[in-house]
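So, could you explain this one?
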Amino acid sequence: MNRFSLICVFLFFAGIPMLAQEKYEREFRIRKAQFPESAYTAVKGYLNKTRRIRFYKEIDSSEQRFEIKFKKDRLHYSIAFDKSGGLQDVEIRVKAIDLPNASYSAIVSFLEATFEKHRIRKIQQQYPRDAFSSDTETLKKAFQNLLLPQLKYELIVLGKKEAGYNEYQVLFDSEGNFIRLRKALPANYDHVLY
């Protein structure tokens, strides 16, 4: 039984690199007028006392979506909508200390087993729309910043494998169980850096 368990664990971690998908995603800043009106109306009531409101259009290899990003109560929020203005998810940037200990331990164990070396660049607490009964409930739970079993954690990780360092987007559930690993493209620079 013990030997069988070790074989299963080995096969699981050996198959993980095959799960990695390419993340062909570009994000462009847009004007408020280019942002879907229905999406802006849905979040307008939550934008009181916010700072740095920015609008973005994100083009993925399979879909197109819009995001509004802002800072409120010392937290960085990102609310994503599909191209017709339907809510997709709400993300809040958090630190490792904000995650439950058991979840963070499971995440770190996965990263150590997957990469030779790794560094977590960003952690976002994600409230997916499909996990709640309505847009209003999703937004309400997110702005209350509740730790719920429906939330997910999205990490941007700089990881080293045999081929060298790459940036990855890794998704976990609220208990730290692995969901998805995607290789990310470098940031988009439409301007000249001096």
Summary: The beta strands are 21-23, 25-30, 50-60, 64-72, 75-82, 87-94, 117-128, 152-161, 164-173, 178-184.
